[in-house]
Amino acid sequence: MNHSFSQLFYLKGKHFEKDVKVPIYLRLTVNGQRRELSISHKVDPEKWNARTGRMRGTNLEATQLNQFLDTVRSKVNKIHRQLIEDDKPFTSSDMKNLYSGKGEKLKMLLELFDEHNQQMEN
Fold it and tell me: Which residues make beta-bridge pairs with 36?
């Protein structure tokens, strides 16, 4: 099963304010379907390279942020590879949930009552 897949780090927020850091977001695209999530880091827009999706410079702050971005990219690639190996259909929402740690399907209230009633009968 072929999937088109891409990931993009970008800045989301007001870029025109001076000396204000803006949040970095990760966009996951699977078969044209997009999902976005915050990676909980902020950066000065003047130090951001949109083409590479990385922070410019070689100072400590840039090095640490770029290493974090590499770690996130690696984790997302690992999730993507695992989903392909499972050979089941998946969406960008599935990848976002797995990255965020929300991989398990949440049970609705009626499902919980049914499960409880089944246990009580047994």
Answer: 27
- Which phi and psi (to 5°) does residue 108 adopt? -80, 165
Helix residue ranges per DSSP H, 42-100: 60-86, 92-100
Domain edges within the chain: 5-121
The answer to whether the CB of 9 falls within 8 A of the CB of 69 is: yes
Quote the pTM value.
0.76
- Which helix (H) or strand (E) segment holds residue 33: the answer is strand 33-43
- Name the residue among 2, 5, 1 with its Cα closest to residue 80: 5
14-71 pLDDT per residue, tens: 666 667 889 999 999 999 999 999 999 999 888 999 999 999 999 999 999 999 999 9
